[in-house]
Amino acid sequence: MPITAAVLISLSTNTYYLMVRYIILLFLVICSVQCFSSTGKWQSKTTGSSIACTVTEAKVPIKDYAGNYVTVVYLENLHIKKIGRNSNKQDVAWLLAQGFRVIELNYAGERHAASPTINADIIAINDSIAAGHFCGCKDCSHYQSYILFEGYRIARNAPYFKDDPTVYNTPEEYTSGDNLSMDVIYPANAAKAVPVILSFSYSNSYATYDPVKKELTDENKNQRLKEEYTLAAFNDSFLEGAPANGMAWAIADHPKYCPWAKGQPVNGRPDTYKSYETNPDAARKVRSAVRTLRAMGSKLGLSGKIGIFGFSRGSTAGSMAIGDRKVPDIENTGFNIGVSDKVQAAALGPGVFDYTQIYNASGDGDVNLEIRCPWAWGELNKNYALWQSMGSAYLVQSSATAPVIFFYNTDDDRYYQDQIAHFKAKLDSLHVPASTLVNYGKGHAVPQTSASLSRLYQFFRHYLKPPVVGK
Question: Is 3.40.50.1820 the CATH number for 152-464?
Fold first, then answer.
């Protein structure tokens, strides 16, 4: 049968569409195996100028419960010695392979890109992410985003304790305990082993019940870095700036695994535990976290030296790690039993360390404790030993306790000063090194100035012995 012109046209048309489909398919295949990047400029407070910014999307991105992208802001070509021996290209590729969106900020060796001046940019980055716009990105996670120095990687959501739902009893549908977790930020393929600073979040993670779906959800899990309650809310840059001082860092879920203003004993009054956590539950979790971090560190190239940084409710929690008293009900519970839970130093901000002291003055800011602690533990004068066992001061027994630097502002709630003064007096009596950093700012706040941050970093460098990274 002869080939007519119509047949030729039909064949030509079919070939054209097949080629178009092939090109589209090839494009989709290429897109599926490559990451997309965009470049621009970001105004750095540290350098006072615009620096190069590169945003790269992972080919298989991970997102938080709200659907926002889990993000790493990667600071590179800083004015410090790089401890991780991998190239930046290798470490960025590793982060992308984990599913992180990576935003690279290139400081091009600028001399101010070092501690403590780099902390100004850490604050600005967290504030921008919390506000919903950073380097053109409007959908970075508000509670699973991290600032990493070049050469550093992250072990994310590492479990450190299985929660007991009967301690705080909320919500009532929460009957099988979740794992409390931590994130560990460490130098990969490090030239030298580095110490690590551990902080317990002052944002609470907790189980959430959806009455419509009639099921527990993950909505409020892993909230330890929730910007609106932690880093951005208080311009807290200390942990994320630790690598500029030769140290790794870790952030753990707060031991009270329920909303801060909730919690009650079995058959107790609703919200008995408003504004405080109870023991031995909290101390068990803190000690288990230290043991878990030390066990993880042996595999991540960390030195084994651990410091504590605590602020507000995170200070109350972290302070339970410093004492040397051995309590079997605490030591023999949790993960990695047998691994040392000793810490080498602690910086503690305003917190509660001894509940027996809450009635020393009235109208000093701790009315929630004054009202509700008796609901949990009975009257103080009839149950003094029980009340005493609830605080971290009880866990301090001898000079083997870790050295401490306390920080606070005198215009903060007065009971914080009372708590610190009482705790420091006990440390002084036992000849435990204890110092203070006072009036570095205003109110309930963390240190933010170069002078106050330098003082804290110097304290940890003295006791944790990190490698020198300054140029």
Answer: yes
